[in-house]
Amino acid sequence: MSNPTNEVMIEIKNLKKAFGEHVVLKDISLQVNKGSVVAMIGPSGSGKSTLLRCINLLTVPEQGSIRVGAQDFTFGQGNKASKPLKDRELAKFRTNTGMVFQHFNLFPHMTALENVMEGMLTVLRKPRAEARAYALELLRRVGLSDRADIYPQRLSGGQKQRVAIARALAMRPSVMLFDEATSALDPELVGEVLNVIRSLAFDGMTMILVTHEIAFAREVADQVIFMRDGVVVEAGPPSQVIDNPQQAATQSFLTRFNG
Fold this sequence. Notes:
25% strand
């Protein structure tokens, strides 16, 4: 469904991350082209979510380098190592990478519209009228025009997640990261969130999805990455990784989905 270009939007080299003695990411390298949709699959604890959080620098790796668009950071020892990250640098970097989490993290005291407007007002310093107009456009895009003045406690899980997506899009990011965006939803609500992600793929948004929705990954992704124990075991188009996996670990993982 996606139509990637030859321009590399995300480049990760030799990324390593440990929490104490537990090494979560072991020398991860990958490239994501502009307009590409990458689905990361694998068992729980394989490092998928940690890798996504490293790309957005919510988690800081010990070694390696990350580039998103024109911005890059290098970690670890050596003459290319970056200085300690400044809040301003982090904020600028993160505005380029919208992230949607498993749990919605909406501000409960703000309406759906106010949640979407907040980042534009406080981070981007947009005029209120401009922020409101764009927030309304984004709510329409995710199918929630009629819920703009509703507070989160009166929204369904699927509606909350769609507000969270609109809030991330409000920062006009170059890349969208989805960390198990549907796993906290009741089954009947999953489809409405997947439809929004599908429309973003159709529009050419560069995306990385951590997901257990294997059929959806097959449909929208042009690259699938299977991770286990902190390493990329297998990577390639869905027709290879999902339909014809070469590695025994990938085959074993997918048997529960493919029967």
